[in-house]
Amino acid sequence: MMNTPKKMQFNLKLTVLWLLCCGVHLAMAQPPRGPLVISPQVHADKTVTFRYLAPRAALVKLSGQFLKAPVEMAKDSIGIWSITVGPVNPDIYPYSFNVDGVTVMDPANVAFFPNERFKASLVDVPGDTPLIHALQDVPHGTITYEYYPSLEESTGSVVVYTPPGYDKNSSTRYPVFYLISGTTDTEETFFKVGKVNFILDNLIAQGKAKPMIVVMPYGNPMARIAEQNLEPKPADLISREGDDAIRRAKLFENDLINQVIPYIEKNYRTISDRNSRAIGGFSRGGGQTLRAGFGNLNTFAWICSYSAGLSPAEMESNYKHIGGDSKKTNDQLKLLWVSVGTEDFLYKGNIEFMDYLKSKNVNYKSLITGGGHTWMNVKTYVAETVQLLFK
Fold first, then answer.
1. pTM of the complete model beyond 0.70
2. What is the CATH code for 142-385?
3. Residue 312 pLDDT > 70, yes or no?
4. Cβ(305)–Cβ(283) under 8 Å?
5. b/e map of 238-272 (b: 16 or more CB within 10 Å)?
6. Which architecture does CATH list for 41-125?
7. Which among 10, 129, 191, 382 has the fewest CB atoms less than 10 Å away?
């Protein structure tokens, strides 16, 4: 009995020694750490400093949607490249670095743009007063990632926003807004870049938007099916209105109508009628919105197109009923919304689409802004339309 404490003490010393030796070994096995890099750094005057560690690089440039053209960065004595730009108008912007000809993300920044291909980093420049997409001291909804049985035995994924109070008000049912991202975007983009959850939190708190569920599907089921079959993803569309574009849009429409909506209505407390379903989308997602909406007026009463329009030729060939019986269309649609920026490369097509609707006496609301084909504009369009839905 007298020897037990000594044995325990001896064993403890051996354990500590072993851990110390392991720690030294692990420390020696780790590569040396470079200097701490803080990037991006947003200053009070709205200027922003970007930094990138690359001691051996010959040239590093900064690209971003807050710049007219890439700008060269300066290198210090320990190999950190930096530049301060601005002041930058408050908003959320994608940016990247070009290091000796290779485009890279910012490794010091955890915020990135969800995309099928290159994922740019994101910088959030706050306003002096909180912008509509900013985190504010209001009740917040919940974001949930869902997986559902999709086409060709694949597994689909959606991001779902439920409004503040959804879990507490267990008897309340809600209308649903199906919101689709653009080409190469993912189901996360309206959440992580579009900040639709904060936009709705803020507008609901102000009494300007009705509480609603927002479902954000992945707009490229063909790519998901290929990926899950260990096949390469299909190439990007060459034409937005060619046979391939229409075929892919039809595949998405099939997935949305027959897989996504039934899954959501089975698993969430929705109001399951056409007057309580809206569909909206940006760019390719806007085209999918118009095609799925016009093709399923028994499903959707609210259609919101952001930076997208259908040509008069496609309207006449595939959706002639929209303009052919405008009175019926106007009676069925609670809202048809079209918005685009004057610098958007799809601006002309959007104007042609609106001119077509006007010539057929189809009612619509529009918002023409400055700027281009950007998520800065999309947030504006979303904030405007959600105030109109389900009222």
1. yes
2. 3.40.50.1820
3. yes
4. no
5. eebeeeebbebbebbbebbeebbbebbeeebebbe
6. Sandwich (2.60)
7. 129
